[in-house]
Hints:
Elements: H1 3-24, E1 33-42, E2 48-57, H2 65-74, H3 76-86, E3 94-99, H4 102-117
Parallel strand pairs: 2-3
Antiparallel strand pairs: 1-2
Amino acid sequence: MNKQRLAGIEKEISRIISTLLMGEIKNSQLKKAIVSVNHIRVTEDLKFADVYFTVMPFSGQKVDLKAVEESLNAVKGFMRKRVSEELSLRYTPEIRVKIDDSIEHAMKITRLLNDIKG
């Protein structure tokens, strides 16, 4: 499949899932932190969409990433259904939930560098 078309599909899936996270999904684990879509990779045959989520805790709180991942896996069928309703695709990709810890990793490195400085 054309790379531009895949990029457009990834962008639209990201928009749909982000909208769902902001309003329609009422899972208590997902409301304990800021959960957002970081990026999406769709396979060329449109069978799978790896959705990478970023989880940022509210100030001073700890978040159980495993519980957030389980909650996202619990609602991935709903997310797939909404994607199929909003996009005209022959095949709606199966959503695979991935937690992206790159921001957390960057914050840890920044803290270490600040400790060395000060």
